[in-house]
Amino acid sequence: MGKYFGTDGYRGEANVVLTADTAFRVGKFLGWYYQNKKKAGERCRIVIGKDTRRSSYMFEYSIAAGITASGADAYLLHVTTTPSVSYVVRSEDFDCGVMISASHNPFYDNGLKVINGSGEKLGDDVIQEIENYLDGLTPEIPLATRENIGRTVDFAAGRNRYIGYLISLATRSFKGKKIALDCANGSASSVAKAVFDALGADTHVIHNEPNGININDHCGSTHIESLQKYVVEEGCDIGFAFDGDADRCLAVDEDGNLVNGDQIMYVCGKYMKERGLLADDTIVTTVMSNFGLYKALDQEGIRYEKTKVGDRFVYENMSENGFSLGGEQSGHIIFLRHATTGDGILTSIKVMEAMLEKKQSLKTLCQGFTVYPQVLKNVEVKDKESAQKDPAVVQAVEDVTNALGTDGRILLRASGTEPLVRVMVEADTQEKCEKYVDQVIAVMKDQGLVLGIR
Questions:
Q1: CA diameter of the chain
Q2: By the 8 A CB rule, do 383 and 389 touch?
Q3: What would the pLDDT profile of 75-119 be if each residue is shown by its tens digit?
Q4: What are phi and psi of 6, to 5 degrees?
Q5: Which of 61, 74, 182, 368 has the most C-beta neighbours closer than 10 Å?
Q6: For the packed helices 391-404 and 430-446, what is the interaxial angle rounded to 10 degrees?
Q7: Is 319 marked active-site?
Q8: Could you give the CA distance from residue 132 to residue 142 in angstroms, rounded to a whole number?
């Protein structure tokens, strides 16, 4: 991770951490950087999408101004999803793309996600160059003049092509299925209903009226409760909840039970394996996937890889090894045959495919996966590395590992942004989880490593 750009872009409170001036300078750098890679007479083309936050309009104009000021052209998708920007970049031969969104964060935050010409998150080498420019460590970029000044182009048609692409991926009509969609008052509001209506579903949409400040506000994948209630009260066959930029999807079965990203990977992975579509019979997960997923995959003869937390690391593993399915418990699911990023609406289509082809409900498809209880506590420490490597702590973790055997696991993971070590235990009972988490934290306290518990 860089100084400003984390695993999911440059993110922070609008006009406090991330300002319009910063967006202008990022746009100016991107336009200059990619324009310099073009042949004489060619124009760099950068596509921009945004979510529904009030500040997204400000950042859209700022970054477009920076792009055009450096001599490149900015194409505006307007309100759209992060995966649609990735799709448009790689299918329409753009040099790069920018998605303006802070994903599942509250409305007052925002962010810049930069996507390269292959539809992937921008590499660390280019991120470092951007940060050097923002910090004044490299020469100022000259402004374009006269006929070299770039232009802005309305490109809403790109979003419509993405909608058409999603529709084309469905293997069956959704006719006769009553489906609830929670659009989180975010990007999915401009895409999801059109897709499900076109596929013949009896579509019921909630939280689909963004006003600039209600994105993710007690709705969407981070607040699943209202969708669970709606599905039961309205007698829906299934429900899908997206986050602010629609790169995540969680589901709700017909009884209102949450089906998280791990369960979705189990359902889709098992279905894909049965049809010979799961490359090397392997699913890529992060270290935070539930222990129950691994037990269930073992039963199905499905192998798995574990990466650091972040869909970027999942994608990198999949790309390097040719795997076809991976994701996170939070609902970032990547179907590499169809997308290079997590795509919430694509995920919902794939879940529907498994249901329709197997003629089973989502509840039935999830049988065989037992979600293990999990307890995670954030321990504020003086030094993250010292806390993790302390001999007494290492021994305490080993003791818990031995006590759990094959029926659970313990994980110590340092936060990437805060002075915290996360202590997580999964076991077959909640009581065991609490016991072993507290046991390790007690050792950390005895060693004088703990400042507080969050």
A1: 72
A2: no
A3: 999 999 999 999 999 999 999 999 999 999 999 999 999 999 999
A4: -90, -160
A5: 182
A6: 160
A7: no
A8: 16
